[in-house]
Amino acid sequence: MSWTVKGVVALAEKKPAELVDIVIPDPGPNDVVVDIEATGVCHTDLAYRDGGINDEFPFLLGHESAGRVSAIGEDVTHVEIGDYVVLNWRAVCGECRACKKGVQQYCFDTHNASKPMTLTDGTELTAALGIGSFSEKTLVHEGQCTKVSEDAPAEVAGLLGCGVMAGIGAAINTGQVQRGESLAVIGLGGVGCAAIAGAKLAGATTIIGLDVDEKKLAAAEELGATHTLCTKDLSPQQVAEKVQELTGGFGADVVVDAVGIPQTYETAFYARDLAGRVVLVGVPRPGVEITLPMLDVFGRGGALKSSWYGDCLPERDFPYLTDLFLQGRLPLDRFVTGRTDLAGTDAALDGLHDGANLRTVVEVAK
C-alpha cells in the first residue's frame, strides 16, 4: 500500500517551500516508514530550498527528526513497528574501504530508501540528506533509524539527527577535547553552542565562545562557556590575541570553526596553541578559498581537521547522548528556542537568516 500525507516541498530554486500532498510508497525489502513527530529547522534545508546544494528539484525538505516506525519491509531486522527512533543520514554500508578500515564515520556508500517518494502526479522527490522529514511520514532505509529512549521528547531527541550532533561531535569526536584542556568556538549558532556543550561534557576547563552578534553570547554561557567575546569589530589577528590572553598566552588546545568562511578559519588557525587542533565544522560555500603561509602551517604543527556530521556513529552516539540528557548531564532541551507546525516551516527557514533561535522545531500534529 501507499500513503498520501502532507509534506513541505521546495519546487523551484529560491521559491517559498510549499505544504503539499506527497505519496509515501510501500517500503522496499530494507525500507522503513516512520511517522514523524518533530523535525529541527536546519541551515542545510535552507540551502536545499535556495539551490545551494544541487538542482535536483523538487526537494522534500527536513532531516533532523524523531518519530515512530509504522511500517517495515520484508527483510528489515534492525527495527520493529512501534520503535521510537531518531533518523540519521549515515547508515553505514559495512563494505566500503572506509568501513573495512574501521572508520565507518567516513563511509563512502551510506544507505537510503530504495524507492522515491513522489508528488501526487508521480513526480519524484529528492529527499533532503536522504531523509525528507518535514512531513507526516517519510521513507528511509532501516539503517537510518536509531532507537533511543522513549523518555526523551521528540523535539529534543530529533536534534541529534544533525546540527547538535555535528557540534558535540566536532568537539568530542573530531577535536578530541580532553579533561583540563581549552576550547574556543567561532560562531554561536546551534552547531557552535553544541560544540560548547560537548566541550563541557568532556571536561574542558576553559571554554571560549566567539561571535559577531552579541545577542548570541548568553546562550553560549548558559551551555557552558566560561568566557565569551563579541568579535564584530575585531580582525582575525585581534581575535586570536584575545583567545591567547584567555589561555595563559598560548592559544586554545582546540578551536572549532562553526562558520566556515576564510576570516573565521584564519582566526581559528592562529588562535590555537602550538600543536593544537583546528576543527572545521561550518560548511563553506563552493568556490571559497583560503590562503595561509606554508611556513606557519609547518611551524605551528598540530592538526587541521574537517568534521563531517561530528564524525559520529549514530548507533553509538545517539543513545549515549540521549541517556546523558535524561540524566541531566547534557541540556539538549535548551537548544529548542522556537516551535512551529508544518505550515510554518517556510517562515522558519527564512528565520534562519537572523539567527534568533538556536533551533526552531517543527512539531507534527497527531
UniProtKB/TrEMBL annotation:
* GO MF term (any one): zinc ion binding
Q: Does the keyword Metal-binding apply?
A: yes
EC number from the UniProt entry: 1.1.1.306
The superkingdom of the source organism is Bacteria
Keyword Zinc applies: yes
Give the Alcohol dehydrogenase-like N-terminal domain ranges. 28-149
- Protein family per UniProt: Belongs to the zinc-containing alcohol dehydrogenase family.
The record ties this protein, via PROSITE patterns, to:
ADH_ZINC
Spell out the InterPro entries in the cross-references: ADH-like_C, ADH-like_N, ADH_Zn_CS, GroES-like_sf, MycoS_dep_FDH, NAD(P)-bd_dom_sf
Where would I find the Alcohol dehydrogenase-like C-terminal domain in this sequence? Answer: 190-325
Q: What is this protein called?
A: S-(Hydroxymethyl)mycothiol dehydrogenase
Look up the record and give one Gene Ontology term from the biological process aspect. Answer: formaldehyde catabolic process
Cofactors demanded by this protein: Zn(2+)
Q: Which SUPFAM superfamilies match?
A: GroES-like, NAD(P)-binding Rossmann-fold domains
GO CC, sorted alphabetically, is: cytosol
This protein's UniProt keywords: Metal-binding, NAD, Oxidoreductase, Zinc
